[in-house]
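Narrative of activities, Objective 1.

The group set out to show that a structural description can be obtained from nothing but a protein's sequence at a throughput compatible with the screening campaign. Below is one input-output pair from the validation batch, recorded exactly as produced.
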Amino acid sequence: MAIRSFYVSWDHAVRNGDGLLENLARWTNLNAIELTNYDSDWGPTYKEVGSLVFPSEAPFKGLGLRLTTKERFARLQRFMESARSKGFHVVCNFAPLYANSRRFVPMACVDVTGAIVPGHNNLPAYGCPNNPDVVKYGQTMIRETMATWTSADLIAVNHVEFPFWANSSLHENFACFCDSCKARAVARGLDLTAVRRDVKTLYDSITAGPTEGSVPRPLSPSDVLNYLVKHPNIGLWLDFRMQSMSEYISAVVKAGREAAKDHKRKVRVGLEFLPPTVSDVVGTDFASLYGMFDWISPKLVPEYLTASVIPRVVEYATKSRAPDHPLLMSAIRQLFALGAAPPSYRKMSDQTEGLTYSNTFDPSAIDNQMRYLTPLVGKVDIHPYTWIHHRDPAALKKKLEKFRSYGLDGYFIWGWEHNLSEDALRKARKAF
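Output recorded for this entry:
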């Protein structure tokens, strides 16, 4: 089954209700609507931490989570029921490593400097997959989703990766070294103290910047390879992270499958993950995990990586404006096969779509990433995840046509409220 989905915020869904569903049915080729397990506002800032979409906190045993009220939950349920009645699949965008309670902080990742890693979008902490309480939390979340999201027939497991956003610092991307990771490392015979020392050396060398009198030159893949040869603990650390995340994902998905069976529900479970060249580095081993999922959704290619995350990393590393370091910006893109960098960077005046710069997408990045996905074509359904930016449905249509050239008819789209007005949908002329 080809899933053709568009993300809709809960606020927009409830405010527009059946009118939105009728417009989507009339003006698009969509057959699914993706809704997150957080009832939060729409936009990149998320100044208000959202409520988890569950009717009761009781299964979470005093974690202090902020949940929707029973009345609000019932209203959200009615929207999902209406969507199903109009022929749409309902997808739950399920992010189990995120929690909206300060009581989650002791379960958070600890970076190489010893700091707690903050959560994304103002959430208080980023859960460590090696922490038994984080595993239990993820299992409880997916069981409750199976039990209470009775109209959702698809669950997309998302953001099961180690931190990469660099929201408040660069060192938060160098995780995790918490007590749970230490215990897991001992069980595996890994000297995490020695690993941490080498990771800290790497982090310090990045943040130290160039030495006086050095001549800037592009970073090449051979530089990275040579560094790993001389510092094998870095490779062991990345492998340790990948194994840890794979075990976590397996435990959560297994609990979900069992809950679906207990509730006699037919729910398909998929995996959303970063571009293949980035996924292994952040711990998501999609090439080994795909067999436990009904579909996979590689993100091809999120502009927030090239327009926001990479510039932030460069600014933290150099302590200066990212566009002033074109060689470094280009080198990082090349390292992860994210396409060519623009000749110059255009600052976004409108931050609604969460982008710092407006012209960082290179279509060749899709072909670059597909090289890692073509071996899986025919083994698992692949529905790429993509974005509509700059109110440009024609650019989105070109991405979808590129996917179809690889035999991929399904897709997931992340967009914004302005993309879903009746006028915008009509003008898009069924681009999606």
